[in-house]
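Action item from last week, closing it out:
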Amino acid sequence: MKIETKKINEVSVVELFDRVDASSSNNLKEMIQGMIDKNEVNLLINLENVSFIDSSGLGTLITCLKSINKAGGHLKIAQPCSNVKSVFDMTRMDRVFEIFDSDEAALKSFGPEAN
C-alpha cells in the first residue's frame, strides 16, 4: 500500500492506494499514531484509489478512529470506490464512520477552521 499525505488548513489528508489489508495495516496504524503524537488529530482518509479492504484494514481504521476521538479529533472517510463502500455497508461500518463522496464535502464537515 502506498500512502500520500498533505495538509489542508487544519486537516491532514491521507490518501491510500492499492489494498488496505493485513500486510499493510500496521504501517498505516503507525503512521496515523505518529500524526496523533504531533497533534494532527483532524484526519481525512481518501480511499478513492483503494481497490480492496479486508477485516484487518477495517480494524486498523477503527483503532485509528478511537485514538483520534480520544485525542479530541475527527477521522472522516472520502471517496471509497464501490467495492470498498460495499464492505463498509455490509459490516455496518458506514454507521461508525462519516463517509463522504468528495474530499471537498468531507473538508467542509470539519468546520470553518478547516477550509
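Closing note: Residues 2-114 form a domain with the Transcription Regulator spoIIAA fold (CATH 3.30.750.24).
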